[in-house]
C-alpha cells in the first residue's frame, strides 16, 4: 500500500513538473516546421547527384 502511495506521489510530481515546462513555452511557438516549398526540387537534385530516382 505504501509503495502505491509513493508511486502515485512520484507520478503527480512528474505531472506537475511537465505542466510547468509546458506553461513556460511561449504561445507563438510553432513546433511543426513545414519543409520549404522547393523541398521536392532539392530532393530531386540530391537524388540526381547520387544517380538514384526519388521514391516519393
UniProtKB/TrEMBL annotation:
Stretches for region Disordered: 27-56
Protein name per its UniProtKB record: Uncharacterized protein
Higher taxonomy: Bacteria, Pseudomonadati, Pseudomonadota, Alphaproteobacteria, Hyphomicrobiales
Amino acid at each position: 500500500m505504501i509503495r502505491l502511495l509513493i508511486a502515485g506521489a512520484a507520478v503527480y510530481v512528474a505531472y506537475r513538473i511537465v505542466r510547468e515546462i509546458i506553461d513556460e513555452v511561449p504561445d507563438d511557438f510553432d513546433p511543426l516546421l513545414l519543409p520549404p516549398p522547393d523541398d521536392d526540387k532539392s530532393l530531386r537534385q540530391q537524388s540526381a547527384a547520387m544517380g538514384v530516382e526519388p521514391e516519393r
